[in-house]
Design goal:
alpha+beta; Sulfite Reductase Hemoprotein, domain 1; five-stranded antiparallel sheet
Amino acid sequence: MTTPRTSNRPQRGQGQWALGYREPLNPNERMKKDSDGLDVRQRILDIYAHTGFGGIDPSDLRGRMRWMGLYTQRAQGIPGGKTAVLEPEELEDSYFMMRVRTDGGALTSAQLRTIGGISTEFGRDVADVTDRQNIQYHWIRIEDVPEIWRRLEAVGLTTTEACGDTPRGMLNCPLAGVLEDEVLDASDVMAETVAKYVGSPEFSNLPRKWKTSMSGCVDHCTEPEIDDVSFVGVRNADGEAGYDLWVGGGLSTNPMFAKRIGVFVRPDQVTDVWAACTSIFRDYGYRRQRNRARIKFLMADWGPEKFRQVLQDEYLHAQLPDGPAAAPPKHESRDHVGVARQKDGTNAVGFALRTGRISGSLLTRIADLADEHGQGRTRTTTQQKMVILDVPDERVEDLVAALAEHDLLVRPSAFRRGTMACTGLEFCKLAIVETKQHAQDLYAELEKRLPDFDEPIGINVNGCPNSCARFQTADIGFKGSMVRDDSGEMVEGFQVHLGGHLGTEAAFGRKFRGHKVTKAETADYCERVLRGYLERREPGERFAAYVARAEESWLL
């Protein structure tokens, strides 16, 4: 891709390379200019694995390590009220979170067994399945990283650019290639894009993170509405399968939905169009202020028409045909939990974990079950769930029972199925509240209090405003904060967002000025609001629609 040298584009002075602003504008940009993030790999192998944690250069430790999927872990016992008070070196432990890149969530049993073994041996048998289809370790020592990489790479896995200002792990439907009614299978175009550009210096210095999804799923399970760039399966007027291009989605403190660019992208064009979109972000993205360095801010200023013009004229040097909008999601639920028929007559069996938290030992057991009941193919989902593919009819119930022995549920309650949680205070330096265990306790309590509740309900528990668990798009979203309890003490709690919804008539959740609940009050609050919904709902009305018309007093 060529980079334009000059332009008359507006928004001068925001650090856009295409307008000549190449000087480092903040500490992050300076760090990246001093040394490409990809260069840290060799220093880890040659130096840091031998010197240990104390020998790591601070710029690598709190910056470039992310390019290799490594974040320093939060020191144990530091309360949430200290998160914004302490310096990074005071918050961090001498251990790392490590993110394994699993593009599209596709894993063989051999890969999953390797991931599980590493967790057990090097990560205190702890692992998280994330809502970006990755798997994260905790308690990783820098001395063990070379051996972990050796084992991962031996089965075709990597941690490269799983974090950092890079193309992060890409999303695809976990049932890609097997789902009976998918629009098309994006697996090959994603693999081509990953192979060509992940780990390449061409895109190793983006303004900030770059989240991609490519999927032909009829349920839009990759949640393209909130990705930086998405290729959404669609058929044009001639019946040809291709992709509708969406750009500019994102959550955090300034949530925005992606915009349709209005073009039809053939499968053989996807990699080039993705690279062109990524180049626009690299060259025109805002680098001066870190909190405006996402593509959503550029899209808000440009609009989709201008984005398309720059995409075609300056990067592709060709016109893309107009394209139709993708069909709305076919089903309300996007998690692929349950038993689904595959094209070949076998079945995909999706199951709920405990808000994404799992052990390495149990990942290894899942790999064994995938071999015993299927053909060794497993998938992770964007809802912190997992799927085993290729299960014959006569083996389905045996597999359901075997998974249930480990509290992995193919037919979970609405609360278990719909609850997600970010990493939280236990390991994350940005978090204000603990999330994983609290979310598990919450869904267990709601199962007791509302045992007959069977409507789909998303409850997303987030430890801070960054929305790693997507609190703005949940039916009930909890954003971690410190709040005062009845005695006036500052305790862990949450700001509440209600009625978030993706798909048709997408909307971010409603929030109410000053309305927060303590951690101890969340079950009471959920029960109160959900009972009100059950009493007042109209026939067939989902929770998000109810919230949209509800009086404020019903929701407090």
